[in-house]
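so my prof wants the structure for this chain in the tokens format not the other one, which i didnt know existed until like an hour ago. anyway here's the sequence
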Amino acid sequence: MGHTPPALGTPAARREGRDKVTGVARYAFEHAPAGCAYAWPVPATIARGEVVAIDDSAALALPGVLAILTHASAPRLAEPDDPTLAVLQNAHVPHWGWYVALVLANSLEEAREGARLVEVAYDASQPHDVILTSDHPRAYTPEEANGGHPAVRERGDADAAFAESPVRVDATYVIPPLHNHPMEPHAATAEWQDGRLTVHDSSQGSTKVREALAVLFALPEGDVTVVSDHVGGGFGSKGTPRPHVVLAALAARHIGRPVKIALPRRQMPTVVGHRPPTLHRVRLGAGDDGVLNSLIHEVTTHTSQIKEFVEQAAVPGRVMYASPHSRTSHRVVALDVPTPSWMRAPGEAPGMHALESAMDELAESLHLDPVELRIRNEPGTEPDSGRPFSSRHLVECLTEGARRFGWAERDPRPAIRRTGPLLTGTGVAAATYPVLVGPSTATAHARADGTYVVRINATDIGTGARTVLAQIAADALGAPLESVRTEIGSSDLPSASLAGGSSGTASWGWAVHKACTALAERLAEQPGSVPAEGITARADTAADVDRASPFSRHAFGAHFAEVQVDTDSGEVRVRRLLGMYAAGRILNPRTARSQFVGGMTMGLGMALTEGSTMDAAFGDFAESDLAAYHVPTHADVPVIEAHWLDERDTHLNPMGSKGIGEIGIVGTAAAITNAVHHATGTRFRELPLTPDRVLAGIQLN
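here's what i got, hopefully its the right format
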């Protein structure tokens, strides 16, 4: 037998690619069991109050309408751990867009028209409060921010060290609410048969959805199956169960027929989570040589009245730069707003924008190259904990990225490169994202015909999980890649962590590698050929994952941007983006590049086009669909490059990989806004840099 070439590290094509582009792949809403009904939700049109009456007579008179569920008629649910899932259970309205009714009909069009005819009366006599301010009287310091991070961390005397520093930056940065808009909206198809519930859901983790539904409907988990076979993007908004899947299951039980629901895009900002607005004050104190003495990053953000979520935006300051004195803190205000949640790189994306913008301002004050400034403040160990890094090649990312970008040719003076009305500038920012991993289980099965089947409840949200897991399995088995089949996307498979926090491949791959290694050992001991029933090995990584690591484990990167600013219109065009990453072993260059580029494009949107406005009068997000909330495309940047170092880190997992799904967005916005400053000489501290905002800033300069 010839030597089997390694599968890991090769640019294997996505296994499901053809199915997706030819329409063979089925998404949650496309499953159509016999007799399926359609649901359309009715959102509240007040920001705070109570439902006092619902007139559904006109809707019920519409041909095709089957039933209308309200808080008065919907079946009772058990109390969920997540209060956002307690839909149609009482008359209280905690925010605009909260669902107050659900219309069920024989067709989608009839359900939508029925929802339009439902009339709801409210008691909205109590005033609402939806506007975040840095001095809000109800702001408080929580115990923790998202991810279990302490809300406040201090070293030394940051205020005194800042006051004594010869060079100081004291700046505020504003990032508005941002929204996930995956290509596939949140959708589900639910069916009850003999007391068992089967749901096809657009989710980043069907195991978690099964657990939530089992609690809500008082079922054994074994009586619930949740399938998330193909998912058209999530970016965090599908990382936890959402109201749509509860509504589908509730409605299907009520009418005794399968029910499908797809959320209208205009409703998504209020019910599937959002990145909350963050108000940043960053103070950097340094010596004349640029070495930091003090780093202070204070963040104020909002949460809802029904569930606390605190964006951990000050946490990156605990990792990035050496400083003997530091304070990183979070405050939060509970407002009458929808509950915020995960959005790609929660915490790191807004936090690093503020920190890296402040670092650029410090470099300008020192007349020091911003790449050099970052290198001078490179820590030997993690500043916050003192733990050694398992690997940290940020300096190499900065220097190699600068070489590839042509940074040495840059004239550091701002507002110098002009061609007619166009000003050109370049900017840089660093990036970091933690290495996260969750416990997972997997089985590996050898068949008598020489093929293998790997089973694990991983979720492919467009990242190529099927392909990469097959590569991991093939390497561990020493088998050809084409001989390995992967089964994922169902809660009936061995349970696994969700696709979030850039942890999917590391978590699932660890379990797959462990199962396949065990299977290979059994096969080596097997006398003769594989029996007809095959041989199966099972692995559980709970003990491996829970083992405390003495290392600080993070991916790092550097982003470089070139922009052109039209001084007549204020329009900013990104001409080039380049990312350089140190993210462990890259398991599949083809799918990895796609992840990096996607994150960078999303960071471009954060910088220039994406932003939401909270309407103070109504309590609603004004930009609620893709006509008003502008998502960028690859056409918005002519040249975009993603490169990486060949990083070897033995303190991660058997594959030596780090997560790559989120680090691409971290730092990109700051690199772009720093480039806009270099182009114009004007410092912009509020995102996004829309033409009106840029033009006004240029004219004031």
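also thought this was worth mentioning. The radius of gyration is 26 Å.
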